[in-house]
Design a protein that fits this description.
This protein has 543 residues and is of the alpha/beta class. 32% of the residues lie in helices and 17% in strands. Helix 1 runs parallel beside helix 15.
Length: 543
């Protein structure tokens, strides 16, 4: 940076202006009265929902729970139109929140944080952006999302393709016209599953390149009667309290029964009932051991495979769509609308790239096995460098110049998914080691923002300058995260939860699988015990 560039002194820099950044900004600036600067790569607020505008994009959490709970008037006044919130509506909601609390006025848009370095002489973070802005801040809070860094496999010849190519996580804001075009979608994760039915209805021909067949639960998406939402609003306090102490951040009644507590006919009836309810209720409202017992998981898996066979008309095609290489619940459970029905369309083709691997991408299409598929558009629904990818894009350095990327080279190490030893006054909203992607995100986000706000307030009340996670506490937390994950289905598949979708990335289970309620109890205990596991100090953290 040029020496003449002015350095602005701040209390806090918040990186990101999605759900996390908006609420963090509001809490620090408006509640605690701090001088805060938010830095956002997009041209407006929205975070994940600013970038992910692909056809069919929506959230898998029900709309009435996918929103902020910190402001009662906001909760009562906003009206959701459907069972699940779709991307345009979520973006409007977050824009409304930004307007309501005037959260844009201290936000730099179209700007990325290039580096954040802690300096022990000043006990401050020096933050630099790609726009040449420089800040010296007491606190840095990352609100960068868990699924924000898209990744595309390094297919041979990828750059030679002369048609249109898009990643679902960086979709053109003006949209894409598929009419009359031959389209390829590579990937059948969440964004692929949501976009494929919509693209199929628009395109002349759609070829889906599938690596992993998926278990899916029907969303049962549709408009919601306003009278139903009005009744929910009357009970919002109770509903949110239940969600905050639940397993997944949802106010669902979790059934404490095994799949083997009932006879075959009753088990089938319960699974059918869950199937008709749709969404995550299938997991939470049927049997409690679907997440921990391979045999119970297999019963649910075979039930879903039966549904696929019933839905897809061509038995040979249905067989290709059956998930057989991983148990139900070991990967992200996908919530779909008309996904399997789409394969009954005459203009849709499925390529199993396990049998016919993608050899190369050419100027005019994709060669898989011995077949070349001419296409006009390639949609990469190939996922993200989850949990750690966005951290690695920033040059974050803590004590003694240690790079966070280097510390995490063998897998992320955090205390509570909130901080990392050696990086004082750096907080991570829904970082690795917290429930994050295994939960209804706004519930987890609000809890982290409230905890960070509480820490900052505690430091100021007690004339303390710094807080840093202790190495022993961090080691114990990492061990606990692994212990909790070990007996679950998550350890029985190569998923992005373990970084398996990124070549060379360490295989470490990154989120906390113990549940939102249990995690909250851990955090509450830490606070009640005087921030147990942290070192709080009035000055230098170095001995």
């Amino acid at each position: 940076m040029p020496g003449s560039t002015k350095v602005r002194e701040l209390d806090a820099v918040v990186i990101g202006a999605g759900f996390s950044g908006l609420f963090m900004n509001h809490r620090l600036r408006d509640t605690l009265g701090l001088d805060v600067q938010v830095i956002e790569a997009g041209s407006d607020v929205g975070g994940t929902w600013y970038w992910n505008r692909y056809p069919g994009a929506r959230c898998d959490s029900e709309a009435y729970m996918y929103c902020f709970g910190f402001d009662r008037d906001l909760m009562q006044q906003w009206e959701w139109s459907g069972k699940y919130p779709e991307q345009p509506e979520i973006l409007r909601y977050l824009g409304h929140v930004a307007d309501r609390f005037d959260l844009r006025r201290n936000t730099s848009f179209n700007t990325r944080v290039r580096s954040a370095h802690f300096h022990e002489e000043s006990n401050r973070w020096d933050v630099e952006t790609d726009a040449g802005e420089r800040y010296r801040s007491r606190f840095v809070i990352t609100a960068i999302g868990c699924l924000s860094t898209g990744q595309i496999p390094d297919f041979r010849g990828r750059d030679t393709f002369t048609g249109e190519a898009y990643h679902t996580g960086a979709w053109p804001h003006e949209g894409v016209d598929f009419a009359g075009k031959k389209v390829a979608v590579i990937g059948t994760g969440s964004s692929g599953v949501q976009s494929i039915p919509v693209i199929a209805r628009q395109a002349d021909h759609l070829t889906v390149f599938q690596r992993t067949p998926q278990y899916m639960i029907p969303a049962r998406h549709g408009n919601v009667d306003k009278a139903v939402l009005d009744e929910i609003k009357k009970e919002y306090d109770t509903i949110y309290d239940k969600a905050r102490h639940s397993t997944g951040g949802f106010p669902y009644d979790v059934q404490d029964r095994s799949a083997f507590d009932v006879e075959d006919a009753e088990r089938r009836r319960i699974l059918e009932e869950g199937w008709e309810m749709g969404g995550f209720k299938f997991m939470f409202s049927t049997f409690s051991d679907l997440r921990t017992s391979l045999t119970a998981s297999e019963l649910a898996g075979e039930f879903i495979r039966g549904k696929i066979r019933e839905t897809v008309n061509d038995p040979e095609l249905a067989q290709k769509l059956l998930p057989l290489d991983h148990p139900f619940g070991s990967k992200r459970i996908l919530i779909d609308t008309d996904y399997f029905e789409t394969y009954n369309r005459d203009n849709v083709e499925l390529v199993d790239i396990n049998a016919e691997p993608i050899v190369e991408i050419t100027e005019t299409g994709i060669t898989a096995g011995d077949t070349h598929h001419d296409v006009d558009v390639i949609v990469y629904a190939t996922g993200f460098d989850a949990m750690t990818g966005s951290f690695n894009r920033i040059d974050i350095r803590g004590l003694d110049g240690q790079r966070l990327k280097d510390k995490w080279a063998a897998g992320p190490r955090t205390y509570l998914g909130l901080t990392s030893a050696g990086f004082p006054n750096l907080f991570m909203i829904t970082g690795p080691g917290s429930p994050s992607v295994l939960s209804n995100m706004p519930i987890s986000i609000e809890q982290h923002v409230e905890m960070i706000s509480g820490i900052v307030s505690h430091l100021d009340r007690n004339e303390l300058e710094l807080i840093e996670a202790e190495v022993r506490a961090e080691d114990a937390w990492v061990e606990h995260v692994n212990e909790v994950a070990e007996p679950t289905m998550f350890m029985h598949a190569n998923s992005w939860y373990l970084g398996a979708n990124i070549p060379g990335k360490p295989r470490v289970f990154m989120p906390y699988a113990g549940g939102v309620g249990a995690y909250r109890q851990h955090c509450d205990k830490v606070v009640a015990n005087g921030y147990e596991g942290f070192t709080l100090s009035p000055g230098s953290v170095k001995a």
